[in-house]
Amino acid sequence: MASKVIHALYIDDDILMDAVKKVRAEHYHIEEVYTPFPVHGLDKAMGLPHTRLAIASFMYGCVGLTVAVLMMNFIMIEDWPQNIGGKPSFSYIENMPAFVPIMFELTVFFAAHLMVITFYMRSKLWPFKEAENPDVRTTDDHFLMEVSAGNHDVDALASFLGDTGAVEIKVIDKEEDNH
Amino acid sequence: MYTLSNRLRLFSIILMVVGLVGLVIGFSQRPGSIEEVKEMMAAHDAHGGGHGESKAHAGDHVESHASEHGDDAHGGDAHYEHVLHQLQNKPWSALYIAAFFFFMIALGVLAFYAIQFAAQAGWSPVLFRVMEAITAYLVPGGIIMFVILALSGFHVNHLFVWADPEVVAHDKLIQGKVGWLNGTGFIIRAAIFLGGWLLYRHFAVKYSRLQDEDATGNKWYKKSFKISAAFLVFFIYTESMMSWDWIMSFDPHWFSTLFGWYVFASLFVSGITTIALITIYLKSKGYLEFVNNSHIHDLAKFMFGISIFWTYLWFSQFMLIWYSNIPEEVTYFITRIEDYKLPFFGMLLMNFIFPLLVLMNSDFKRVNWFVVMAGIIILCGHYIDVFNMVMPATVGESWFIGISEISAVLLFLGLFIFVVFRALTKAPLLAKGNPYIEESKHFHY
After folding, report:
1. Is B323 on the interface with A (CB under 8 A)?
2. What pTM value is reported for the model?
3. pLDDT for residue B48
4. Which of B156, B145, B78 is closest to B106 using CA atoms?
5. How many inter-chain contacts (A to B, CB under 8 Å) are there?
6. Using CB atoms within 10 A as the burial measure, which of A3, A82, B231, B254 is most buried?
7. CA angle at residue B33 from B31 to B35, to 5 degrees?
8. pLDDT confidence of residue B94
9. Domain segments of chain A: what residues?
10. Which CATH architecture is the domain A3-36+141-174 placed in?
11. Are residues B437 and B126 in contact, defined by beta-carbon separation less than 8 angstroms?
12. Distance to chain B for A97, nearest Cα, Å
């Protein structure tokens, strides 16, 4: 089904932030905003739900810690106990200080890597994926707001967007929804 | 303008009076002779495990004494004399720990304040008056520390073994350190450290007030910036030496190269926590209307981050010594783990695990009662940290939390509250001349 969207381009992140707030106040629907760099507070202004990435990261960290404990327990205590520096070789808890760096590193390793992979998956990003970016200038110095025209009057919406400080406004017919 | 309520004034004075009375009792209860020690220990043994307030370790206490009796090579009175010295040291150590703990809070806040200027931070100027008020405690706290240090350095009490000429005469290792560890040098260094810190504090506060009166050209602000940067250089050297002198020299045979940083982390996190607690208190009383929950959030982030930093330094010190297991180094931790098991591991729980779990979630850092709860635990934890640094060397296995420990904390807590809140009344709560004050008011995360 064909749907009409309006692309409004801005050249400043502060103007963009104000525009986003105004557009939301008028109850127009913002499909997406493309920016060349992360804009602080944009997610809140757009009304996006709070990210749950932090919770996922905490759980990944717990997994990493568990893996480290089990791994060191198997390697150093169960499978092949060694006498290193006269330390007790048969007790995990008494050798624990020596394993803390490993526990720390694996916690960070798991949390960081799995968090990045989760982020890519949630953002539907993978190698050789074709960019969804509608305008190549948003990778340089322009900010693009995609507003769904819906049942609104397209001309009124376009002139309203022009008043919010957009430097360029394009009406696009979308053949099919990519999302 | 803040006005000190009569209730708070009365509360702080009561704390001071109770603390002072308790300390006098603590000092008067010190055993004077070996016979008294024998009597006390006999009474202690008779009581057995379940003994009133000091229940948790009373049991260990008796056990450790009992085991020592068994293999006591010196025989008879040598052990009792040892305990006698330890018990005579106990009120002095309690006084020293509490005096140092509240002093280090003010010092940590002073360093934090200087960093805000040197970094030209935009979020924090609304909190500057709170920080300035806390650093006001440096004056009385510093004088008290100086008096106690002078008494200890010249062997009026037995806190520092290196101050005892008789001990030094039989100790080759201390003899080698006499060039640094002697009463005169000790006092001169303390005077230089305290003098420099107080000097910076005096001018920083003065310029901050002058900037309010005349903000044109930010003349006073620029001066604040310069002296803050200079102070930070002075501070990081003197703080390190202060930690060797005032704390590490309790164990004059032992040394650790990152001790200065370790003490710094402790005083820094205690200072930031105190800023957060006093800010939340003042807000609850209807002051500081320009402080929003983003400021509290940032303070809580610092509490969280510096707690982790403290743990990192604690562990770096512990693991290397534990791993290499060199007798003259590892004795430091063996004493603490054998005789101070509960405070030693309890402190790790309070200073690391608790803040880690409670302050990890970003939403919790904005909930005032969460920050207050975490803050109180962190402050108690760092008191125990100082306790663990001082007590094993001065009191050894004869420690317990008794009347002198509690009274000393009450005394200095009362003094701290009195001085800090009185200093708050001296200037408007908003440093309106600061060039970043608008940014700070609108700070939003």
Report:
1. yes
2. 0.86
3. 46
4. B145
5. 20
6. B231
7. 100
8. 94
9. 3-36+141-174, 53-122
10. 2-Layer Sandwich (3.30)
11. yes
12. 6
